[in-house]
Amino acid sequence: MLSKSAARSFFLVGTLVCVAFFIGLTVDTLGRVPAQTRAQNLTDSVKLGKKLWEKNNCMGCHTLLGEGAYYAPELTRVYERRGPQFMRALLKDPQAMYPGERKMVKYNFTDAEIDQLIAFFQWIGEMDLNGFPPKPHLVQLAVTATSTGGGVAQASDRPFVFNQMCVACHTMGGQGGLVGPTLDGVGKRLTADYIAAWLRDPAAVKPGTRMPRLPLTDKDITELTAFLSQQK
Ligand code: HEC
Ligand code: HEC
Description:
binds heme C; 3% strand; 10 helices; Cytochrome Bc1 Complex, Chain D, domain 2; 3 domains
C-alpha cells in the first residue's frame, strides 16, 4: 500500500509526465503540418476555391478529408480520380453529363471560379494524409503506369483524352475503373459509327444509360473512335 503522500507524488509525477508527452507530441504534429499539407502550394486560387467550397455548403452533401455528409462522393482524391477536364465539365453543368438522374447542384460558376475549385481540390489531393483515404486495391487506377497485357495499348500510346476521362470508369489492359464495361476488344463488338454516335451522346443511343455525356470535341471523338476501333 502507498502512503498518502507517496500516492500524491505518484499522481503528480504521473500527470506531469503525461502532460509533457502530450505537449511534446502536439508540438511535433504542428511542426509537421506545413510539410504534410504542402503549405508552399497554397496559392490565392486555392484559397478562393476553399471559400467557394465553404460558401456553397458543398459539405452538405460531400465529405472532404472524411468530414461532411455522406450523400455524395468523398472528394479528397477527386483530382486524381477524375482529372481536371471531367471536373470542369461536371461543375459547369452536372445535368448535361447525367441527364435527369443525378443530384449534383448546378451552381452557375464562372470559369474562374471553376478553376479555383479545381486548384483547391488539386491542393487537397496532394496533401500527405498518412494513407487516407485508402486506395481500392482491386483495381489499379494509375493512368501513367504501363500494362503488360499482350496486344493491349499501353497507357502512353492512348489518346490523351482517353487517359484523362475514360479510365475513371473503364478498364483497358486491366487498369481503370469498374463503372462501365472494359474497353478491351471494343473494336470487335462495336462499329466505328456506333462508337462515334455513342461518344457524342450516349443517352441518344441508349436511353437511361449510365455513361455520361462527356465534354468531347469533334477532334476528340474522331481520335477516340479511331483508337477504340483498333482495340480488337
Ligand atoms: C445536393 C447535394 C450536393 C451538393 C450541395 C454538392 N454536390 Fe457535388 N455531387 C453531388 C452528387 C450526388 C454527385 C455525384 C454525381 C454523380 O456521379 O452522379 C456529386 C459529384 C461531384 C463531383 C464529382 C465527384 C466524382 O467522383 O465524380 C465533384 C467534383 C463535386 N460534386 C463537387 C462539388 C462542389 C465543389 C460542391 C459545392 C460547390 C458540390 N459538389 C455540392 C451532390 C452534391
Ligand atoms: C462516369 C463513368 C464513365 C465515363 C467517364 C466514361 N464511360 Fe463509357 N460507359 C460507362 C457506362 C456505365 C457504360 C455502359 C453503358 C450502358 O451499357 O448503358 C459505358 C459504355 C461505353 C461504351 C460501350 C461499350 C460496350 O461494350 O458496349 C463505350 C465504347 C464507352 N463507354 C467509351 C467511353 C469513352 C471513350 C470514354 C471517355 C471519353 C468513356 N466511355 C467515359 C461509363 C463511363
